[in-house]
Specification:
alpha+beta; Cytidine Deaminase, domain 2; five-stranded mixed β-sheet; 24% strand
């Protein structure tokens, strides 16, 4: 796997779901550990150079985690001039979403909406690759 150089990648807008999924597969690929990746996009849907891994997430979200996540996303997005964010949940298991995965996705979606943080996409990096997380996967 060849990781795209930022100078090349920044020229390609991630204006489709398929383009985002390919980029995440190229950058993060198959899971190695449990963490959350924050990827930021500009107003033209181009990836910004700031990519942040977040370690030590609890298995299930706890009260206040949504506000903390959305606050950190909003602050970082403002500091770097991001127009939207892509969240990638990485964990070494199969591609089926667990109850915990769904709870985190729902919490992130609702927190971002409540804090006016444009959430462009959520994906799951699992032991076999990357998959899209659609709203239907966690809205029940």
């Amino acid at each position: 796997m060849t990781i795209p150089a930022y100078d090349d990648a920044k020229l390609v807008p991630l204006d489709t779901d398929a383009a985002i999924e390919r980029r995440v597969a190229d950058l993060i690929g198959r899971a190695n550990r449990r963490q959350l990746w924050l990827i930021f996009l500009d107003e033209h849907q181009r990836q910004l150079p700031t990519m942040i891994p977040v370690d030590d997430l609890p298995l299930a979200p706890e009260p206040g985690d949504g506000d903390m996540l959305a606050g950190a996303l909003a602050t970082t997005a403002e500091m770097i001039g991001a127009a939207s964010v892509v969240l990638v949940w990485e964990r070494y298991a199969d591609d089926a979403l667990t109850v915990s995965d769904r709870r985190w996705a729902r919490l992130a979606h609702d927190a971002c909406a409540g804090h006016d943080v444009p959430l462009r996409a959520m994906l799951l990096s699992h032991r076999h690759g990357v998959r899209w997380i659609a709203q239907d996967d966690y809205r029940f």
